[in-house]
Amino acid sequence: MCRYGGPVLTVTTVNVNGLRAAAKKGFVEWLAGTTADVLCLQEVRAEPEQLPAEVRDPEGWHVVHAPAAAKGRAGVSLYTRRAPERVQIGFGSAEFDASGRYVEVDLPGVVVASLYLPSGEVGTERQDEKIRFMAEFLEYLKGLRVRAAADGREVVVCGDWNIAHAEADLKNWRGNKKNSGFLPEEREWLSQVFDAADGGYVDVVRALHPETEGPYSWWSYRGRAFDNDTGWRIDLLVSTPGLAARAVKAYVERAATHELRWSDHAPVTVVFE
């Protein structure tokens, strides 16, 4: 029995690519129909007061918004059916806590976080920022796992990790070896996160679909990337092993057509029993 309060815990993560825009293109309708118990959003890019009421504080949800200090940038949110027992914005970083990139809540038996890891750009300060974030965040993840276990909780960190870990995680891996998101040092960092002797976390979707190409969750708006399924799997649910062992189903809610997309990302959902 999941201590969350029922036999099943369903968690969804999605980068909305601007929540105000997504709300006008179908997110509101999607939210009304989702069966998720917890919803993690990234790249909200709005202050709470700028959001329409139906996404700022929708009926039936408890919502935490963590906007970035820089207006119109980043921003993460967490929607839960149950009221959180604790809310934390940021991960104790002097540089990044006001950047709208991390929020976590305690629920019965589980810590859930929404993460928007910097995207980076090779040869620029944006990549340096990404590397600094990664170094700080890995240490935080290690401590979080230990603290949660001492409190009798599992952990799941959901979001746009902006790194494809393996060749199976992006269609055009050969052409992206020197691009941010598939650099050797970024992939090695994720390996550390997933190393039982280091970070100690599990890539839940990959654990359920070990031999699958993808399933991709982001497709560029350029060209025919979506139509050709030339995508990346960068939206991850990363959990402690105990929770990962309870995962029974994982899927990407890919839009039926390009025109029906309300973001360049698709929702990724995992069901835990």
TrEMBL record:
UniProt key word Hydrolase: yes
Task: Report keywords, A-Z.
Answer: Hydrolase, Magnesium, Metal-binding
Matching Gene3D superfamilies: Endonuclease/exonuclease/phosphatase
Query: Which residue ranges does the record assign to the Endonuclease/exonuclease/phosphatase domain?
Result: 13-265
The UniProt entry, under InterPro entries, shows:
AP_endonuc_1, Endo/exonu/phosph_ase_sf, Endo/exonuclease/phosphatase, ExoIII-like
Q: What family is this? A: Belongs to the DNA repair enzymes AP/ExoA family.
Protein name per its UniProtKB record: Exodeoxyribonuclease III
**Naturally occurring in which organism (per UniProt):** Streptomyces kunmingensis
Q: What is the taxonomic lineage of the source species? A: Bacteria, Bacillati, Actinomycetota, Actinomycetes, Kitasatosporales
